[in-house]
Every structure is written in structure tokens, then in C-alpha cells.
């Protein structure tokens, strides 16, 4: 365990600005000076103990809230975060605090939502998409990556057709029967 010196604390006090990039540079510098391995998290922890942690992100402007409200039902939090130059977590937390539902949109679902409705993991639904059994398009015009982090846009009518044809493939206590009934009856 590294024992912090006053000289090292002075370096943190003078150079720390709250960013991971700068914290990593400080960690590298202190590792070189002390001969111990000092991590980014050690620097951030020391800054917290010293009371010099940076404040949270800037407050949301009315314009940003307007953009968030307009985009939340049509785009992924990742896409919105990039547009607003905020973190994905900031977008999700702010939308929850404003009580904005990401599901309140007309006529389409994400792959994750379909997984929750059908009570299966994403690999099973991805298999249906890959085979063409479940029609899906790229969400927010973002091409899917090979690592499985694709964002899919599944139209309600395509999901209803899929359920009607493949309902026998889904059994068990995790199936959302209420949502399936609403979908098939047209109440969603």
C-alpha cells in the first residue's frame, strides 16, 4: 500500500482537474517519482480525501432538456449523449428525473424490450433477427457492430407477426403475457 507524501499531495492539488485523462497523467507522474504503481483511482481517491474533487457536470440548460425530451422516445441514450456532449448515464438519469419514458413511443420496440416481453436472452432474439424471422432495422441509423452491441428498431406490426408465428417457441414464467395480449389485441 502506497504511503502518500506531502509532495505527492501537492502535485495532485496543483494538477488535478477532475478528468480521467489528467488523473491518469498524474498517476503516471507519481508512479515514476515514487517507484510505486499509483492508479488513476488512487489519484481520484486522494483528491476526494483532500476535498478537491470537481463538482458534478454542469446543470442542464432549458435547451438541453428540450432536446432530450424531443429525442428520448426516438433515439438511444447513447445517441442522445453524443448529441448533447453528456455521458450516457447523465442522459438516463436526467430522463428518469424528468419522468420521461423511453418506452413511450409509437409503434416500435428495442431488442431489449422484445427480450423482456418474450422472456428470453438477447442471443435468442438476435438469432431470430439474423435468420430474418423477426424483421428489425438499425436503431438511430447506427450500423450494428460485430461484438453484438447492435441497437435494433423493431416495428410493432413486425413483432405482432413474429409472435403470431413463433409463440410456441416461448414458454415459462418470464414471458410477459399481458404485453403479448395487448400487442395481439391492438391495445398498445
Explain this structure.
There is one protein chain. The protein has a 3-stranded antiparallel beta sheet with strand order 1-3-2. The protein is built from 10 helices and 3 strands, in the order ααααααβααββαα. The mean pLDDT is 84. Helix 7 (111-118) packs across helix 8 (122-131). 18% of the residues are buried. It has 188 residues and is mostly helical. Helix content is 54%, strand content 4%. It folds into 3 domains: 6-50; 62-97; 108-185, Multidrug-efflux Transporter Regulator, Chain: A, Domain 2 (Orthogonal Bundle).
Structural class: mainly alpha
**What count of structural domains?**
3
Please tell me the CATH architecture of the largest domain by its name.
Orthogonal Bundle
- Mean pLDDT across every amino acid position: 84
Taking pLDDT < 50 over at least 5 consecutive residues as the criterion, the unreliable ranges are none
Oligomer: single chain
Could you give the order of strands across the largest sheet?
A: 1-3-2
> How many beta-strand segments?
3
| Helical proportion, percent range | 40-55%
% residues in beta strands = under 5%
Distance between the termini: 57 Å
SSE pattern, N- to C-terminal: HHHHHHEHHEEHH
Amino acid at each position: 500500500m502506497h504511503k502518500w507524501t506531502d509532495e505527492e499531495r501537492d502535485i495532485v492539488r496543483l494538477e488535478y482537474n477532475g478528468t480521467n485523462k489528467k488523473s491518469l497523467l498524474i498517476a503516471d507522474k507519481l508512479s515514476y517519482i515514487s517507484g510505486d504503481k499509483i492508479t488513476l483511482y488512487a489519484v481520484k481517491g486522494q483528491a476526494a480525501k483532500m476535498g478537491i474533487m470537481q463538482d458534478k457536470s454542469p446543470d442542464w440548460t432549458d435547451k438541453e432538456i428540450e432536446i432530450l425530451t424531443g429525442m428520448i422516445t426516438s433515439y438511444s441514450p447513447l445517441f442522445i449523449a453524443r448529441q448533447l456532449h453528456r455521458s450516457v448515464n447523465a442522459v438516463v438519469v436526467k430522463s428518469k428525473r424528468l419522468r420521461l419514458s423511453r418506452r413511450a413511443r409509437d409503434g416500435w420496440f428495442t431488442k431489449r424490450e422484445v427480450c423482456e416481453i418474450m422472456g428470453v436472452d438477447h442471443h435468442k432474439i438476435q438469432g431470430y433477427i439474423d435468420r430474418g424471422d423477426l424483421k428489425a432495422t438499425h436503431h438511430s441509423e447506427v450500423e450494428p457492430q460485430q461484438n453484438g452491441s447492435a441497437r435494433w428498431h423493431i416495428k410493432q406490426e413486425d413483432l405482432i407477426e413474429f409472435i403470431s408465428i413463433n409463440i410456441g417457441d416461448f414458454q415459462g414464467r418470464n414471458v410477459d403475457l399481458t404485453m403479448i395480449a395487448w400487442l395481439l389485441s391492438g391495445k398498445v
